[in-house]
Write a structure and sequence with these properties.
Length: 560
C-alpha cells in the first residue's frame, strides 16, 4: 500500500494515539513536570590510568536527543538534536584518524528523538522525530555526495519510536509518541523504492522502548511507556517472514528509556530505565527459551544512558540520569555476570550517543547542554588458562553457538577426525558430542539463522563433497545436500538472506567456482565464478550486503 502526503491524514492518524499521564514522564523527557537532578560530584577520573577515558575534539554545536551513526568509512555522522530551545538542523562528521569534527550538509528539518539507520547502500535513513512540530518527514544522507534529500513520508508522525534494519534490507519503524499520545502502528521502509508501507500493529502502544534485532532475523521489542499501563513490562516479537507481532515473556521489572543490547551469546541484556524512579536491575532475554532472567544489577541505577557492546563481548554503559546527572560508567562482563566501574567521564551527560569505532574505542558525544566528546579505550586484554580440549587437533573449526557455547569440529592429529566437542564458558568445561559421519579437516563451519551449524567440504584423504548439519537442540548431525564439486580450503559466508555463500578452495586444481546453500529447501545452486581461482583466502560480509573476497593463493600468493 502506498501513502500520499495529506495534512488531514496526519491529523487523523495522530488522533489514534492514546495520551500519557504527565506524572509518568521521567525528569529530562519532554513534557515532564519534574526538575532535572543535580550533576554528579566526586573525583574526576578522566584519563586516570586503567580507566580508559580521554577527551577529544568537541562538536561545534551542543545538542541532546541527536543521533550518531557509524559510516562505512569508519567515520561517525551526528545529526540533529536539541539545544537552547530549538531543534538542530546541523550535522557533523567525526574522523577517528584526525580526532576532529567537520561540518556537513544540514538536515531539511531540525529534529530530536528521531532515529538514524545505516542502510546497506551506505546511506543513512533519518526518520521522523520532534521538530518545531511532530515530523512525519524522512531524509536520506548520501555519503558520496555529502548531501541530504527527502525520501518517503511516514503515514503517522512520531518521535521516541524504534528503527531496526531487517535482514531484507528494509527498515522497521515501531510505535512512538504523537502529539496526542502513544502509537501501536508500525511501518516498513523499502530502500529500493523509497516508500513506506504499513505493517502489523504492536499488541501494546508504546514509546521510549527498545528494539533489538535477534540472530534469527526477528525483532524483540521490550518495555517502554504506554497510555494506560504507564511503565511497561510486556515484550513482543516481530517476525518478518509472517509480518506479524506476537507477545513473548515479560520483563520482571517494568522500564522505559532503557537500553537493550544483543550480546555475543545471542541473548539480549536490558539495562536500567525508569519506572517512577531510576531502575538498577538488569535482565537477560534468551531467544531459545523465550524467557527473561535477572542478572547482576548496575552499581548505579540510570536511564537515558547509552550502551555499546565492546569487541571483548563486554558491555559499556555510560552516563544517564539517576538521583544526579551522571558522569559514571560501568562495564558488564557476561562471563562472570557482574558489573564493575569503568571510571568517570570528564562531563556528566544524558540523551547522548555512544558509537563503537573500528579501532575498538567508543566515541561518546554531546548530551544535555554539552558539545564535548570523549573516547573510551578498553583496558588491555588479559589471558587466563582454560580447560584443555579432550582431543588434540589442528585444521579444525570453532563456531560460537547462540547459547554462548563453542562448537569445535573435525581437524586432525595422527589422523583426520570426525569427533566434535562443545566448550561451556559458564563452567569452563569441554564435553563430547556425537561425531560427524565423515572425518574432515580444512572444512568450513557456518552458524545458520536457525541456530544450526552447516559443515561443508574439507578433506579426508581426498577433498570432500559431503555436507552435514549440527542441531544443538537435538545434539545430532544430519546429512545435507552435497556440494556440486569437492573442495577444501574454501570459505563460507552467511548472507543477510540466511543463505550461505561458498567460494573457491581446491580439489585437483585451485577453484574459481562458487555456490550458494539455501537452508529453506536444503539445496545448493551454482553462481558466477570469480575471475581468479583461489584457496586459503578470506571472505568478509560488508554492511552493504556484498561479500569481499581477498588474497589467497593459486600457484602463487594473490594480491587480488
Amino acid at each position: 500500500m502506498k501513502y500520499i502526503l495529506a495534512a488531514s491524514l496526519f491529523v487523523a492518524l495522530a488522533s489514534v494515539g492514546q495520551p500519557i499521564p504527565p506524572e509518568f514522564l521521567a525528569p529530562g523527557l519532554p513534557g515532564s513536570p519534574y526538575p532535572l537532578p543535580p550533576v554528579e560530584t566526586g573525583q574526576d577520573m578522566c584519563m586516570q590510568p586503567g580507566m580508559g577515558w580521554s577527551s577529544v575534539d568537541s562538536l561545534s554545536q551542543a545538542r541532546r536527543g541527536h543521533s550518531s551513526t557509524l559510516l562505512l568509512s569508519g567515520e561517525v555522522l551526528t545529526a540533529g538534536g536539541y539545544y537552547g530551545g530549538d531543534c538542530v538542523r546541523s550535522c557533523e562528521i567525526y574522523d577517528p584518524k584526525t580526532g576532529s569534527w567537520r561540518e556537513t550538509d544540514s538536515l531539511t528539518y531540525g529534529r530530536q528523538y528521531h532515529t538514524a539507520t545505516l542502510l546497506r547502500s551506505g546511506d543513512i535513513l533519518v526518520v521522523a522525530g520532534q521538530g518545531s512540530f511532530l515530523l512525519p518527514y524522512c531524509e536520506l544522507y548520501d555519503y558520496s555526495t555529502h548531501t541530504w534529500s527527502l525520501t518517503g513520508t511516514l503515514s503517522a508522525a512520531r518521535r521516541s519510536h524504534s528503527a531496526t534494519l531487517l535482514a531484507s534490507g528494509e527498515v522497521l519503524i515501531a510505535g512512538g509518541q504523537t502529539a496526542s499520545g502513544v502509537l501501536s502502528s508500525c511501518e516498513l521502509y523499502d530502500p529500493a523504492t523509497g516508500e513506506w508501507t504499513t505493517t502489523d500493529d504492536l499488541e501494546y502502544p508504546r514509546a521510549n522502548h527498545a528494539a533489538t534485532l535477534l540472530p534469527s532475523g526477528k525483532v524483540l521489542v521490550s518495555g517502554g511507556i504506554g497510555p494506560a499501563k504507564g511503565y511497561l513490562q510486556c515484550c513482543e516479537i516481530y517476525d518478518p517472514s509472517t509480518d506479524e507481532w506476537s507477545t513473548t515473556d515479560s520483563l520482571s521489572t517494568a522500564r522505559y528509556s532503557h537500553s537493550a543490547t544483543l550480546l555475543a551469546s545471542g541473548k539480549v541484556i536490558a539495562v536500567g530505565g525508569w519506572n517512577g524512579s531510576p531502575v538498577k536491575c538488569s535482565e537477560i532475554y534468551d531467544p531459545q527459551t523465550e524467557a527473561w532472567s535477572t542478572c547482576d544489577s548496575l552499581i548505579c541505577a540510570r536511564y537515558q544512558h547509552a550502551a555499546s557492546l565492546l569487541p571483548s563481548g563486554r558491555l559499556l554503559a555510560t552516563g544517564g540520569l539517576s538521583a544526579t546527572l551522571l558522569r559514571s560508567c560501568e562495564i558488564y562482563e557476561p562471563q562472570t555476570d557482574s558489573w564493575s566501574s569503568a571510571g568517570n567521564m570528564a562531563s556528566a551527560r544524558y540523551a547522548h550517543t555512544s558509537v563503537l569505532l573500528p579501532s575498538g574505542q567508543v566515541l561518546v558525544s554531546a548530551g544535555y547542554n554539552i558539545a564535548s566528546c570523549e573516547l573510551y579505550t578498553p583496558d588491555s586484554i588479559l589471558w587466563s588458562g582454560a580447560q584443555d580440549i579432550s582431543t588434540e587437533r589442528e585444521f579444525h573449526t570453532a563456531t560460537l553457538l547462540p547459547s554462548g557455547s563453542v562448537l569445535v569440529v573435525g581437524g586432525e592429529n595422527d589422523s583426520v577426525l570426525s569427533s566434535a566437542e562443545v566448550y561451556d564458558p559458564q563452567n569452563g568445561t569441554w564435553s563430547g558430542i556425537p561425531p560427524m559421519s565423515s572425518p574432515r579437516k580444512h572444512h568450513t563451519s557456518t552458524l545458520l539463522t536457525s541456530g544450526e551449524v552447516l559443515v561443508a567440504g574439507g578433506e579426508d584423504s581426498i577433498p570432500l563433497l559431503s555436507v552435514e548439519v549440527y542441531n544443538p537442540q537435538g545434539d545430532e548431525w544430519t546429512a545435507a545436500a552435497p556440494l556440486s564439486e569437492p573442495r577444501k580450503g574454501h570459505t563460507a559466508t552467511l548472507l543477510p538472506s540466511g543463505s550461505v555463500l561458498v567460494v573457491g578452495g581446491e580439489n585437483d586444481s585451485v577453484l574459481s567456482s562458487a555456490e550458494v546453500y539455501d537452508p529453506q529447501n536444503g539445496t545448493w545452486s551454482g553462481i558466477s565464478p570469480m575471475s581468479s581461482p583461489r584457496k586459503h583466502h578470506t571472505s568478509t560480509l560488508l554492511t552493504s550486503g556484498e561479500v569481499l573476497v581477498a588474497g589467497g593463493e593459486d600457484s602463487i600468493p594473490l594480491l587480488s
